[in-house]
Amino acid sequence: MIRNALLILAIATLSGCAIVPDSIEVPEGTQLVSYSKAVTAGSDAVGQTARWGGVIVGVENKPQKTWIEMVHFPLNHYGKPKRSEETIGRFKVAIDGFVDPITFEEGRSVTFLGTLTSPSAGMIGEQPYMYPTIDGLDYHMWRKETAYDVSTLYFNFATGWYSPFYSPFYRPHWGFHRSRIRVIERSNGVPGGAVKSRGNIPNTIGNSRQGTDRRPSEHRQIHTQEK
Question: Which domains does the chain have, with CATH numbers?
Answer without folding.
Answer: 19-146+185-226 (2.40.50.140)
